[in-house]
Specification:
Elements (H helix, E strand, L loop, with lengths): L1 H17 L53 H5 L17 H14 L1 H4 L8 H4 L11 H4 L3 H10 L13 H18 L16
The protein binds heme C (HEC).
Length: 199
């Protein structure tokens, strides 16, 4: 009994030394669990796989959790026939608009300008100007067409599918609609009781 106590005190003392003392050596790992296993480092060479690389592609058809793009309207902006949807499936709220404004100003305004007239700062440095969002042609774009342009790019515009998440693409589209309205509003768009405030 005394011996057992002695041993457990000694091991407690030993373990307490191991913790909290700076050392260059790897920590003493008394209970290994399964922490040490054979593995490959990222980007390293393999003698096992035919292409000589240890990094593998996911099995075709693999879907990360929470990413099943079953809803073609939401994830691709297209209906079941593959046509761009006229109206976004996402309910427009003040929160969505302010998120859209933030994302638009980050991702789109450098080229399209904060107003969407195609005169962003990059244009001043020589980029061929993008079309204005206030032209009749783009005002008539279905929402799904904007979604496609953001996801895949168009001609000289790069794709933003990797940078802008699906929910943010819809937020940006709702904000572009607000920008379009702001540049083409009529007196009748203002509630009668507020028309007196217009200057
Ligand atoms: C690096 C500059 C750049 C950025 C950033 C950029 N665009 Fe563009 N965009 C362009 C150019 C250039 C064109 C014109 C492409 C062409 O037709 O040659 C264009 C065209 C478009 C068009 C019209 C497509 C058509 O069919 O005429 C839309 C809509 C559009 N962009 C939306 C967006 C949105 C939304 C974002 C932000 C997520 C964005 N763009 C970010 C450069 C940019």
């Amino acid at each position: 009994m005394k011996r057992a106590l002695f041993i457990s005190l000694c091991s407690a003392a030993l373990l307490s030394c191991v913790r909290g003392v700076p050392s260059d050596k790897p920590p003493i790992h008394v209970i290994q669990d399964m922490h040490k296993q054979p593995r490959y480092n990222p980007q390293s060479e393999s003698n096992f796989f035919a292409d000589g690389a240890t990094m593998r592609e996911p099995v075709p058809g693999t879907v990360p959790q929470g990413w099943l793009p079953a809803d073609s309207i939401y994830y691709f902006g297209k209906d079941s026939q593959g046509n761009p949807v006229a109206v976004s499936p996402v309910l427009v709220t003040p929160k969505l608009l302010s998120r859209g404004k933030e994302r638009f100003n980050i991702y789109c305004s450098p080229c399209h300008s904060r107003l969407g007239d195609g005169q962003g700062i990059v244009v001043k440095h020589g980029l061929n100007p993008p079309p204005s969002f206030h032209s009749d042609r783009i005002r008539q774009f279905p929402d799904g067409e904007f979604f496609d342009v953001i996801t895949n790019g168009v001609h000289t515009m790069p794709s933003y599918g990797d940078q802008v998440r699906v929910e943010d693409r819809w937020a940006i589209i709702s904000y572009i609609r607000a920008l379009q309205l702001s540049q083409n509003a009529h007196l009748e768009d203002v509630p009668p009781e507020m028309r007196g405030n217009l200057k």
